[in-house]
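seq as requested:
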Amino acid sequence: MADNTVRGRFVWHELMTPDTSGAHAFYGKVVGWKTQAFEQDPSYQMFAAGSGPVGGSVAQASGAPHWLHYVGTPDIEATVQAAKGRGASVTKEVTPIPNGGKYAVLTDPQGAAIAVYQSGSDAGKESPPKRGEFSWHELATTDWRAALDFYSAVFGWEKMAEHDMGADMGKYVLFGSNGVQRGGMFNKTAAMPGGPGWLGYVRVKDVNDAVKRAKGARGTLVNGPMEVPGGDWIAQFVDPYGAMFAVHTLAADLKPAAAASTAAAPAAPAAAATEPAAAPKKAAAPKKAAAPKKAAPAKKAPAKKKAAKKKAAKKKAAAKSSKRPARKAAKKGGRKAAKKRSGGKKKAVKKARKGK
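struct tokens:
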């Protein structure tokens, strides 16, 4: 059962980008986030979902644009020391922020950037991610076993399940803590661009709609939409300024009709930073089943009707021809009878005359 233990929970997300205003406009169109200024520092613009702020943006003049994901800790100094002792390097020392919290940025032993955050207030009870919130976090690394050992020691994560993605991709390992699945890890292949890194997924109502919006806002689709084990659907993008992100639709969000009409995709776990050329083909957007067309009459039907008419005509003709002899006979018989009658009448007249 989830509780208010903050250790190991993803609590904040920060976008490093060369264009903060352009990025806010893009994500507003794709996932519906609003822009909200940080009270203690109005220059820091936050991304706000319907449930509240989920992250912020930082203008970056150099370096590759990317999302940086923050994991909660009740004791940031102890966490940083534990990470260093396990081979991580510190790229940003523990730094206090105006709201009473502290943060630090690390690079794990395999080279992926991760941040830690200690809040100045109680984290509160953990609840399932709502729409517009980050719902999954995925690590593409060089050695998932070593990475899992590192994060288990630092954040208390544990292996919860695994999926075999085949000889080329190997295992996809699901990790979590406090009874909650938080994401997955896998070994990136040589074909995947970039180094080790984290990819965050935002929960959306309709993955196909998010794909359409992202493309319309100059985002680049690099993978999906595709179905993953359990029936969820995902798609991965690069935003117009070069940062990679992903969207996630839960199986529970799919309407039965839409789920039935969505084309089946490879039932394999998502993989971050996949080579666009190797990405699966886009699944067709769920469409309403077209009303069945009225069946066209068979081509032979007119011939059958014609034959039936012909047959009826023959029958009629046969009936007529069979009636003719009878009519003729009746007519002949009638004439004979009439002649006989008239002959009888003539004889009677003659006798009557003789008698006179």
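DSSP finds six helices and 16 strands in the chain.
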